[in-house]
Amino acid sequence: MSIFKRAAEILEGKVNHFLDNAEDPGESLDLSYEKMITNLQDTKRHLADVVTERVSLENQMAQAQKAADKADADARMALGANREDLARAELAQKQSELQKIASLKEAHDTVAAQAQKLTDYESKLQDHIEQFRTQKEVTKSEMTAAQAEVKAGESLTGIGQGMNDAGEAMRRAEDRTLQMESKASALDGLIESGALNDPLDSRSQTEKELDKVRATSGVDDDLAKLKAEMAKDKGTSGSGITGS
User: How many whole angstroms separate alpha carbon 168 and alpha carbon 202?
Assistant: First the structure.
């Protein structure tokens, strides 16, 4: 296989793949149906033309038959008047009309056969179109349901673009939250260590440390005081019970 032929096959395959992905099967079915309707309309027009020709031949045959009958009647009248010459002329005219009728009938039979074929074809085509229309609607309904099922499955499994976007947005939000929490912890640590100052707190670092010591000492003093009071209350309660 030549390299050019191989390249052509690859290109053809890519084009067919693109067309398969780009083509809407539902639209293709509708287009096929429209083409069939157009074909049916063309068939009806052809049938109308053929039927018109058949009727025209039938009218010409009727006129020729009428002329032949008149020639026969005139020949009889001429012969009754002892005008054999006129009778012979009318009989010749009659034969001419009969020959004309024979030619017209041959053409009429051919046209009539064509008209019958077109009529049969039209009937079959109408039945075929109706069957196709019904199957088309069924197929489109099934295809729509299948597409909806696929989209639902993609949504549930996260394959769909919308779910992918949502999942990515959620991941970005979670990452951003972790970053903000880490930053907040870092800032608290820096403020606590004195590396950063609270703009609303005008105390020096020494004053902050002293205030912290005072607070801690105050808590320790309160705790010791509370323990002593509870011990005293307990001792008083015990003495009262022994005295009784």
Answer: 44
